[in-house]
């Protein structure tokens, strides 16, 4: 019987080198990811520390003050812990909801809508101008944005001043009012109409320049294709312009909302704002409660409420940006 001779089986190739190489590459990848995550925070750390000192610590102190009944005395002050009594007293006031909150919300919404509409119209106009005229007109409108809020408010107060103001004289010459007996700063609706003009005049240049920066990035071929398809000006704007620069509108909308909710100077500097509760918004109400009425606890509580509103708006803004970034990817 013959025996069949078979060659010995070749040893299986070792997988150690491949596994070792893969492990090293995974370690390097994890290290890169760790560095990519930690490096930005490391670079931002000094600025974050400064911001924490300038913003976070005062915010903590205001929150602490809102939970106390604080009395100013010579050489300092004494606070008595009252818990949420200031918030309960504040939120239970009908005048606070009827005037302060209502003024803040409706005034901010009106300012945001009008600022974005006017800023967009100006941006569309600038986009159609030549380089020289665009530079001239852009510089002119930026002067309104660069004007301090105090100066701009005084100008609008001068325009609508009783008897001697340009606007009352013009309305009187048309027979609409009697300038001698009409004072628009003593009535709630005219008061906030003037304040809205002031805020919109001060804020629309930022919207115009920002929207213009988005408009110049839109390819002209898209508009030419729309015109060939028979789209009119409104259809081209709604179907081409708005989708193309939607992130720009989102940014200016959220930022304008934050700014207009916390308007203080344009209201406080107008006549009658410190003497009539129906003229106040949350910012001026907080200031007058704390420093005019020496009710620091209630003033701090209203400031915390305004901060929470702005925080919610900011969170919505950040979430919207992240969502927009995911859609772009």
TrEMBL record:
GO terms for cellular component: plasma membrane. Residues 1-27 are annotated as: Disordered. Gene3D superfamilies: MetI-like. Keywords: Cell membrane, Membrane, Transmembrane, Transmembrane helix, Transport. One of its GO terms (biological process) is transmembrane transport. Its main location: membrane. It is a multi-pass membrane protein. SUPFAM superfamilies: MetI-like. The chain crosses the membrane at residues 41-60, 105-126, 133-159, 191-216, 237-259, 296-318. It comes from the Bacteria. InterPro entries: MetI-like, MetI-like_sf, UgpAE/MalFG_permease. It is found in: Cell membrane. Residues 16-27 have a biased composition (Basic and acidic residues). Residues 101-317 form the ABC transmembrane type-1 domain. Belongs to the binding-protein-dependent transport system permease family. This is ABC transmembrane type-1 domain-containing protein.
